[in-house]
Amino acid sequence: MRPLSPQTCVKLFVTGATVGPLVDSLHNQCLLKYDVLPISIVLPPMAMPMAMPIIENGYYDYWFTSSWTVPPLLGVAYVVLGGILPRLFEALLWKSGMVMMMGPQQQQEEVTTILQQEELPWESQPQQQQQQDEEPLKRRAILAVGTTALIIKLSEYLETTNNSIVDNGGGGGGGPLFNLLVLLSAALGQWAILDGSLSALLAASVTSIGGPLSELPFVGHGVWVYLDSARDYYPLAGLVPGSSWWSDNSSNGLLTWLLGVSDYTNLGLSSITGPCYFAVTMDAIALGRWFDAMQEKKEEEEGPASEAQ
Q1: Lower CB count within 10 Å: N or C terminus of the chain?
Q2: Structure pTM?
Q3: What is the DSSP letter of 84?
Q4: What is the DSSP pairing of strand 224-226 with strand 62-67?
Q5: E strand or H helix that includes residue 22
Q6: Distance from C-alpha of 249 to C-alpha of 210, rounded to nearest angstrom
Q7: Domain housing 185
């Protein structure tokens, strides 16, 4: 993969800061409430009955819910997820000799042949082949964003359907584990169909774990809070201050400073955000590859023009 260019970084940041909040808002209404610089658009009255079980709790009466803090955060996230992480994992796989699938935009080669090359496969491809790859990458990026939106919307459906059954006294409902498995299956299907590379799978898997954890400081400092109906994941519940293995006051003080609360064991998240982070990583990677191809084509077109002058 070509080095991460400033142009690709800018495009990833702008896309994350604009498209990201719109996609993210597809399930925000049923998961969390923003307390710092909130943005809310009231739900039309005709759509109210669809979410009545949660509307009764006073939270789900918005069509769009976000915060002015979200665009810059998602802008940075898309640069990391679509530009830095894929390159990091591809470099690690390359160095370890474990490269199996280098991405959807190039023809697959024999592993023994790949390991003898000093360049990654698509760096040694003819310029004409690289230029032809831009259009498929564009379509794949659009599909990735669209399927990510569908997965996030599916998370809202599973969350609200589950709450509706519980609020009406029903004994059914899949529960958090069922919702998690359904979303994880959808996210893995997205990866298998649109990408299939080992580096993307590793990047998305790491993000599905680290992404929710990265929200803890924002939850602890009150930027946003997960609703009682959505909280089912307490990642720091086992870190009990004063325990035999957590008796270091400096470590305890660092966590308290970082998270903004002393009782950080009660910081709750929603488990269904993990697969959503997985899907977001996939569309960020697809966008990054498309932007890379755009920049490479532009540089190749400008090269002969500058030589002619």
Answers
A1: C
A2: 0.80
A3: I
A4: unpaired
A5: helix 6-31
A6: 25
A7: 6-233+268-308
